[in-house]
Amino acid sequence: MNHLRILARNSLRRRDFSLRSPSRSFCNLSPESNRPSYGIAFDIDGVILLGSSPVGGSPGALRRLYDDSGALKIPFLFLTNGGGLPESARASEMSQLLGLHVSPLQVVQGHSPFWKLVNRFGNELVVAAGKGEPAAVMSNYGFKNVISMDEYASCFDHIDPLAPYKKWMTGQDGHKEPRSRENLLSHRVHAAFIVSDPVDWSRDIQVLCDILRTGGLPGKEIGPQPHLYFANDDLDYQTAFPTERLGMGAFRIALESIFNRIHGNPLEYTSFGKPNPFVFKNAEDVLKEIASSTHSHSGSHDFRTLYMIGDNPKIDIRGARQAGNPWFSILTRTGVFKGKDNHAEFPADLVVDTAEEAVDFILTRESAKQSLL
Ligand code: G3P
Ligand code: MG
Asked: InterPro entries in the record, alphabetically (predicted)?
């Protein structure tokens, strides 16, 4: 397993993003650059939403970051390990759920850095697995020859012996006529991307083992392992059910332990997502871009403080702590963490009950700083 170090941001986003300059009231502007000296990264699951329902007064809290005309005043983004939809689609979904304008640039998902691998696999046959629209996500980044696990698996008769028992499975037989089956069966898969939480674990583990053991040609003889990328490695996360649900990391553990039992060499893979430091470096760069497009001023701009508001100590808080200055970590009690005090292993700079309380703390703290200037 190896972790990616450096990340640059996909310039795509610069084009499809529209934010108006806000009025100057109460955003703590750094004197030298007339831009807010602070920015905020919000985790989604367990902080802003539980499933698809807003939690912790998140809509009202976020609305305080816009001015009366609806223009963004304080640069913020959603920094989630989740995914499955292109950033633009996820931004409109968040706008719907929260009743405010969220631009695609304000949505950074676990799979967002996958665009970095277009140079390497842009024209190669790659399989994209997970809930939602994994193939659309990848083609949105520029992958020209990507196929979803659903469509790929439907090309191989009997590859999933349990398919006849899966009532929901329309894919195998009723699926729209896939690309030329012959063409696919003879083409080697060069990489597999786990874009979002897999839905059909038994099929996906089976087909991934078939791809990864055979150099990308299921049913053929053993061969070198194609590359394997995960959007995150979260063991569990909080949704609408009272206790945590298994995440992509749990799927990774299942796949890895089975693969290592049936194959000579241990599974090789790369995990993206928080708590990797490059995710926070990238978030800082994106927040700078948001600030520069809402506060007209040329030249570089450094934030004095970046707030990471998260619910998972091992993922959100650990990541912000590892990223270090200027990150300030705030832990809410609306998700994975439900403790009275702080987390023992990954203590946050501040623990609050809700996102609303977190935003209240930030605005009060920053305007206090402003009055000292
Ligand atoms: O699948 C998403 C989940 O693992 C965590 O999402 O928003 O809490 O980073 P989030
Ligand atoms: Mg979370």
From this structure: CDP-alcohol_PTase-I (IPR050324), HAD-like_sf (IPR036412), HAD-SF_hydro_IIA (IPR006357), HAD-SF_hydro_IIA_CECR5 (IPR006353), HAD_sf (IPR023214)
Is the shortest distance between the CB of 233 and ligand 1 below 6 Å? no
CATH architecture of 38-110+275-371: 3-Layer(aba) Sandwich (3.40)
User: What per-residue confidence (pLDDT) applies to 179?
Assistant: 60
Does residue 43 line the site of ligand 1, with CB under 6 A?
Answer: yes
Q: How far apart are CA 214 and CA 220, in angstroms?
A: 6
pLDDT tens for 211-224 read 999 999 999 999 99
The whole-model pTM stands at: 0.90
**How far is the C-alpha of 305 from the C-alpha of 298, rounded, in Å?**
20
- CATH match for 112-271 among 3.40.190.10, 3.40.50.970, 3.40.50.1000, 3.30.565.10: 3.40.50.1000
Nearest CA to ligand 1 atom 2: 82
Nearest ligand to the C-alpha atom of residue 336: 2
For the chain, which residues score pLDDT lower than 70?
Answer: 1-35, 169-180, 295-300
Cβ of residue 329 lying under 6 Å from some atom of ligand 1: no
Q: Which atom of ligand 1 approaches the CA of 46 most closely?
A: 8
Residue 86 preceded by cis peptide, ω within 30? no
The predicted-structure confidence for 264-309, as pLDDT tens digits, reads as follows 999 999 999 999 999 999 999 999 999 988 766 555 678 999 999 9
Ligand nearest to the CA of 247: 1
Distance 43 CA to ligand 2 centre (A): 5
**Of all atoms in ligand 1, which is nearest to the CA of residue 311?**
8
